[in-house]
Amino acid sequence: GKSVLIHCAQGKSRSTTLTIAYLMFLNGTNVKDTLEFVKTRRAMAQPNENFLKQLQNMELINKKKNGLNRL
I need a surface site. Which of 23, 28, 46, 60 has the fewest CB within 10 A? Predict the structure, then answer.
């Protein structure tokens, strides 16, 4: 596979949110499971409250559009 560097000031919130959103879109997974996976790769991953709300909204939209078949 190929590697990608996603960078923000602390590598804790913004980059984590972008990574989670991409993985959710790519794999059809939910926020909780995707965040847990990301934390296995970067333990300090912790999207802020507003970013989490946006990810949860994205999850709802994806559920309505496609259903979350792959968890």
Answer: 60
CA distance 7 to 42: 13
Successive 10-residue mean pLDDT values, the chain, 71 residues = 80 92 93 97 94 96 71 46
What is the rounded distance in angstroms from the CA atom of residue 56 to the CA atom of residue 61? 9
In the prediction, which pLDDT does 68 show?
A: 54
DSSP string, 30-50: -HHHHHHHHHHH-TT----HH
The answer to whether 13 touches 51, Cβ cutoff 8 Å, is yes
- What span, in angstroms and rounded, lies between the C-alpha atoms of 20 and 8? 14
